[in-house]
Amino acid sequence: MTSQTALPLALTDALVDAATTSKAWPFEEARKLVKRYQKSGMPDEVLFETGYGPSGLPHIGTFGEVARTSMVRTAFRALTRDEVKTRLLCFSDDMDGFRKVPSNVPQQEMLANYLDMPLTRVPDPFGTHVGFAQHNNARLCAFLDQFGFDYEFASSTDYYTSGKFDETLLRMLDVYDKIMGIILPTLGAERQATYSPFLPVCPRTGKVLQVPMIERNVSEGTVVYVDPETNEKVKVPVTGGAVKCQWKADWAMRWAALDVAYEMSGKDLIDSVKLSTKICRAIGKPQPESLSYELFLDDKGAKISKSKGNGLTIEEWLTYASPESLSLYMYQKPKTAKKLYFDVIPKAVDEYFTFLGNIEKEELDKQLNNPSWHIHSGVPPKANMPLSFALLLNLVSAANAHDKDVLWGFISRYAPGASAETHPKLDEMVGYAIRYFEDFVKPKKVFRAATPEEAAAMTDLAARLADVDESHDAEALQTIVFAVGKDHGFENLRDWFKALYQVLLGQDQGPRFGSFVALYGVDNTRALIEKGVAGDLLTN
To answer: Model confidence over 313-355: pLDDT tens digits?
Structure first.
């Protein structure tokens, strides 16, 4: 057994057996790794890696990649009974040249003076760190720490300059022609003339140069290029941080140097993965196991872009919902393109608590297919959630409530004994519901007048609710609502419920109306119906 922190779950024979056949995608990915080592034997350490480009701040895609990789790592640890040391390395490409000034940072003119410098040598426009990359790296670590990820941070600059990559860089120099043979056919004629897998860091200016190598000396471990400004030949070693690699070659070099076992990436990098795989093999090392995940789309189906600002940021999601709900969204169908915008949040919140509530009642094999098992590394907490996010949103709407205390007055009657102290997750969700309603539901609410037929049915519903006592739970109240719809000739009961939502709540759909009545209260609901029938809500 290694010294790594043990998994907090009991790795029983039954669990490991179930994991070997589980169809949950993290187990399927982890089994690829187990199979990888069946012939050669399990290594002392298995390295999982994610990459980060520090030319910008960490974003929702960064969260997704680390969260998903962490799930595969946990699945691997379960399959191997946690007897193999594993690490998750979050690698920052901070030695890349600074190619473009981001539009969303201060001191644009100052930054323009540092184009082509390694990102770690570009001054920090925010004034908090030595360099721009160091600032963004610190943001990355704070970002990952916020979610409790178990990871190690790695800096490309540190790894190059400390010599950690030297052996592999010398090997790349030895197989230089093979690497060029892999890359050149993928480039246009103009780029072929200037391409080199090595990018020298100019001793004179400190800039990362994109120039061809005119000489190579394998025994010396050096390359020669022509300085584009002075037209002089310059000899530099490929070791010690004197050069860095072009990114596809860099990716392969890193895989080989660190023996990376697993790294996933977006579907847009499939061709890059193929090239880096060939380079890694040319160096003499196997490529990592990998998963190509689909990209996120905005509400119009367009690919999310940081420069366009479409889609959701991590901060925006966490304003309206919990990290666990975001983890669920990242877990579900990673190979399917999904829309990532504000409308998906309520569903993600409720699905998370549904999965969490179900897992205790499930057999072991189904537990391993339950997303909450993977979100919580095999030890999901108690659900303890007496009502849904969708129901809370409708309560906020009907009660016109803007603070938690008012809402808790309704909730404590609906769920006796519940309070902010006994149900902190519910209290957290109440806050999310208020913010989400104010920003996204309220601006879109459109009340309409009831038709004569709908008004008659709603008036009848209010009359029947007058006879209800405390023994009627949400299910009994739902039965009454159904009965009214049938008695008033609604051929499709969906039209009846849609009328209730549109006239009383100003929206096209909602949770089970019986649950809403139980939460909002019978008397309050009857008063709401009276206002809706009279048209008093139309001014809201």
So the answer is: 888 899 999 999 999 999 999 999 888 888 899 999 999 999 9
pLDDT digits (tens, 9 = 90+) for 350-396: 999 999 999 999 999 999 999 999 999 999 999 889 999 999 999 99
Distance (Å, whole) CA 237 – CA 251: 20
Token pair for residue 259? 């023996």
Report DSSP letters for 336-385, one per residue: S-EE-SGGGHHHHHHHHHHHHHHHTTS-HHHHTTSHHHHHTTT-PPP---
Instruction: Report in angstroms the alpha-carbon separations of 534 from 258, 389, 395, 490.
Output: 72, 29, 21, 21
The tens digit of pLDDT for each residue in 490-514 reads 989 999 999 999 999 999 988 899 9
The token pair that represents 527 in the structure block: 């008063």
In Å, how far are 124, 167, 454, 472 from 398, measured between CA atoms? Answer: 49, 67, 19, 21
Phi, psi of 224 (to 5 degrees): -125, 135
pTM of the complete model beyond 0.90:
yes
Compute the distance between CA of residue 19 and CA of residue 223 in angstroms, rounded to an integer: 50
* Contact between 428 and 404 (Cβ < 8 Å): no
CA 179 to chain centre: 34
